[in-house]
Design a protein that fits this description.
By secondary structure, the protein is mostly helical. The chain is built from 10 helices and no strands. It has helices at residues 2-12, 18-50, 54-92, 96-99, 102-125, 127-165, 169-206, 214-219, 222-249, 251-277.
C-alpha cells in the first residue's frame, strides 16, 4: 500500500526534475513488485515445504529465485543511477538538463530491466555463470555508488573552500544557497541507498549458496537455512522501508503523498455528505 501510494504521488508531483522522478518511480515499482510477487511466492514456498511437495518445491523455488534476481538487480542498478545522476548534476552544472534527458533515463531504466531479466535467465542455464554475474554486478553497483558520493563530497568541500575565500558579495549570496539545496538531494539519495545496501548485503552473501551442488547441500545445517531466511526477510523489509524514507527525506514526495491522501479521503467523504443532505 505504501509503494502504491508513492507511485501515485510521483505521477502527480510536478516540482521534481522529471529524470529524477523516473528513477524514484522505478524504485517504487520494484518495491511494489516485491510485495505483489516475491513475498507471496516466498510464503508459498514455505507451504510447499510444509506439505512436502517436491515437484512444486522445485518450480516455486525457481520462481522465487527469478523474481528476487530481477527485482534486486533493478533496485541496485537504479540506486546506482541515482548516485551517478547526482554527480552529473554537480559536475555538469547548466549542461545537466541537456545531457540527462528524460529519453535517456527511460532508456537506462529499460536497460536495467533487460539486464536483470537476462541475469535471471542465466540461472536456469548455468548456476556458476549466474553467481559470477550477481557478485560482479553487485560489486560494480556498490563501488560506483561509493565513488560517486565520495567525489560529490570532495567537490562540495572544494566549492565551500572557494566560497569561503571569495570576498564577493554575489558569490556569498548565490553559491551557498545552491550548495545547500543540492546537498539536500544528495542526502536524500544516500538515505535511500544506505538502507538498501544494509538490507541486501546479507542476502547477497548467503543466497548464492542456497542451491549449490548436492554434496554441499547435504552438508548445510539448519543454522544455514535460518540465516538464509533471515537474510531474505531483511531483503524484503527494504521494500516496506523505502516509502517511509521517501516521505521522510524528500519534501516534494512528502507533499505529494499528503495531497494524494487528502484527495482520497475527500472523495470518499463526498458521497456520504451528499446522501445525508438529500
Amino acid at each position: 500500500m505504501g509503494n502504491t501510494l508513492i507511485v501515485i504521488a510521483l505521477q502527480r508531483e510536478t516540482s521534481l526534475h522529471p529524470p529524477s522522478k523516473v528513477l524514484l518511480r522505478n524504485l517504487a515499482v520494484t518495491d511494489l513488485c516485491v510485495g505483489i510477487v516475491s513475498q507471496p511466492v516466498h510464503f508459498a514456498l514455505f507451504l510447499v515445504l510444509l506439505y512436502q511437495l517436491p515437484q512444486m518445491c522445485r518450480y516455486t523455488y525457481a520462481v522465487r529465485r527469478t523474481a528476487n534476481t530481477i527485482l534486486c538487480g533493478v533496485s541496485m542498478l537504479t540506486t546506482t543511477a541515482v548516485s551517478v545522476d547526482r554527480l552529473l548534476a554537480l559536475l555538469l552544472g547548466l549542461r545537466y538538463r541537456k545531457v540527462v534527458t528524460l529519453k535517456r533515463i527511460y532508456g537506462a531504466v529499460i536497460a536495467f530491466w533487460a539486464c536483470s531479466f537476462f541475469t535471471a535467465a542465466i540461472w536456469h542455464w548455468d548456476y556458476a555463470v549466474w553467481l559470477v554475474l550477481v557478485i560482479s554486478s553487485a560489486s560494480f553497483c556498490f563501488v560506483t555508488s561509493i565513488s560517486c558520493y565520495s567525489m560529490i563530497f570532495l567537490t562540495l568541500r572544494r566549492y565551500q573552500n572557494q566560497v569561503r575565500d571569495n570576498a564577493q558579495e554575489q558569490a556569498n549570496q548565490t553559491i551557498p544557497l545552491n550548495i545547500k539545496r543540492y546537498r539536500k538531494t544528495v542526502y536524500s539519495g544516500m538515505c535511500v541507498q544506505l538502507p538498501l545496501v544494509s538490507c541486501y548485503v546479507p542476502g547477497l552473501l548467503v543466497s548464492p549458496f542456497a542451491y549449490p551442488s548436492r554434496e554441499l547441500r547435504r552438508s548445510q545445517t539448519a543454522t544455514f537455512y535460518v540465516a538464509l531466511e533471515s537474510a531474505l526477510t531483511l531483503l524484503y523489509f527494504n521494500s516496506s522501508l523505502n516509502p517511509i524514507l521517501y516521505c521522510w527525506k524528500i519534501t516534494e514526495v512528502q507533499q505529494a503523498v499528503k495531497d494524494s491522501l487528502r484527495r482520497l479521503f475527500c472523495s470518499s467523504d463526498q458521497p456520504r455528505t451528499g446522501g445525508s443532505g438529500g
